[in-house]
Amino acid sequence: MRGGLLLLLCCFSPYVTFVQGYNIGLFMGPDSMEWHSLRHAVDQWNNENAVRSELSLDVVTPAESSVRIESQLCDLLQNSVVAIFVPSSVDDNDLQMVYSMCYHFHVPCVTVHGREFFPPEGNDYVTSVAAAYGSTALASLELVVNLRWRSFVLIYQNDFEVSEIVDLLAVWSRERGTIPPRARVRKLPEGTNDYQPFLKYIREVLRETNIVCEGKGKIE
């Protein structure tokens, strides 16, 4: 029986495909939406390309997510990652540390953060896949047009997002060539996650129910 099995393996060994595995690092674990999104993308790529390309991808995460960002990054590097994905949920203050370590260890870093958080010139290990500057304005414009709003409130969270808001209003005037709906701009309250009073103010004081949220602000 053993001899027959060895003979079978020898006969078919030229047709056996050995797939080389590569790890992609992510700071968030399986309890996060970022992990499930990346896991889905990796699984889809493996299903379509692993056998043909003879390589497969996997997602690895730090053993401890509560430690400092540099410790998490060291943990990922010990897993021999070939790239690190940096989602928008990574704190803005930690980005430069991540970019610097990726440059130092020559590990490609793919980020969805915009150019305002981009590393200094010369760091070729960081690639941004964020939407092109001004694209938010065009998307907001299409939303307002399709919904046929006569007025709306534009909410933003960070001061640097004001430039995108200016783009929105400029794009409307340039693309539509008509009198735009009445737009009022308000900034999210700072130091709180309870936005109910703010929304009540918009509904009862401004008498508005149409809202466009700019940036990463999360309203529950």
TrEMBL record:
Q: What keywords appear on the UniProt entry?
A: Membrane, Signal, Transmembrane, Transmembrane helix
- What's in the GO CC field? membrane
Main location (coarse class): membrane
The answer to whether keyword Ribosomal protein applies is no
Q: Does the keyword Transmembrane helix apply?
A: yes
What InterPro entries does this protein map onto?
A: ANF_lig-bd_rcpt, Peripla_BP_I
**Which superkingdom, per the lineage?**
Eukaryota
Subcellular localization is given as: Membrane
**What Pfam families does this protein map onto?**
ANF_receptor
Q: Which residues form the Receptor ligand binding region domain?
A: 37-204
What's the protein here called?
A: Receptor ligand binding region domain-containing protein
Q: Which residues form the signal peptide?
A: 1-21
Q: Membrane-spanning residues where?
A: none
